[in-house]
Amino acid sequence: MNKAAPLIEAAKAARKRAYAPYSQFHVGCAVESADGTVALGANMENACYRLGVCAEQSALAAAQQAFGLEKVRRLIVVGGPADSGEEAGAPVTPCGGCRQAIQEAAALSGHDIEIVCCDHTGEQSITTTIRELLPAAFSLGD
Ligand SMILES: [Zn+2]
Known about the structure:
This is Cytidine deaminase. By secondary structure, this protein is α+β, with helices and mostly antiparallel strands.
């Protein structure tokens, strides 16, 4: 079991609480602080499509309330179609907007943030960082 395994399981549990009746694509996210506190989120869609919120944004909002964005050190995202079975799929990576939101937390902390992208089973994963995913980030100074 790798060190991210408990967080992957937490993100999978969060995914089960996704509200995605339009896309039928369920995503869960776990955000870990420097001291190991975890905040969870899932995608939340809306009949007015543009009001939908990604799992990462949802979890970052919960993290801000739980311990503050400046303490975020790791983010796990898991996702796949709602009707996915037990068979592994492709890892889900944060969209461009979420990358910018994760970057905001990295800028506040002065630390890079590890990102583990997984399929719905947690078996297929890619481990990266926000600096790798968003190398020329827009920041406060811009
Ligand atoms: Zn997103």
